[in-house]
Amino acid sequence: MTSKVISILAVILLVLCLLSGGCSSIAPAQNLKAWKDLIKLAPEDNTKKEVKKNPEELIPAREKGESISIKLYFAQADKEELVMERREITRTEGIARSTMQELLKGSDNPAYRNVFPEGTRLLDINLKPDGTCILDFSSELRRLENGTEEKQMIDAVCQTLAQFPAVKQLVFMIDGREIDIIKGEVDFSSPIKVSQ
What we know:
Elements: H1 2-21, H2 26-41, H3 55-58, E1 67-76, E2 82-90, H4 95-105, E3 112-113, E4 122-127, E5 132-137, H5 147-161, E6 169-174, E7 177-178, E8 192-193
Parallel strand pairs: 5-6
Antiparallel strand pairs: 1-2, 1-3, 4-5, 6-7, 6-8
């Protein structure tokens, strides 16, 4: 008899569960939809997401498009001395790179001569925290004619970059490789000091 009672109680319990739990298929879908709507309406957690800004937004408004006067040094056409030329360029974060690009372009003045062989490009420039500025040039730099041109090029780069107090010394590279000599007048095996 006890097994009959247990069986009857189990059947009654099963019927109650079915009747109370989920006979209606419409209500759970509405509840589920309501939870999805609540999740969509919940405010976003901004502490976990990284805000991406356009690089233009990182430059203060007063600096956008602002120009800066830089000093560039070129060789005189028939002399060993260097002459300074002022040029206005747009202020950028990598001002030393922009300045070196301007130096590589040369001067519009026919009395001045570019200190770099034609076609020389700046491949990279990197300023270390200790003030060492690493300059990586293309292989055309090896086409300097003689030791005098080599010294003029070094002096022009040193004087041009000396306007930036963070630059203390220069390391020259060609095509990503350290160099010891180009024409033999200057020892490139150790950093070249910049006089400010």
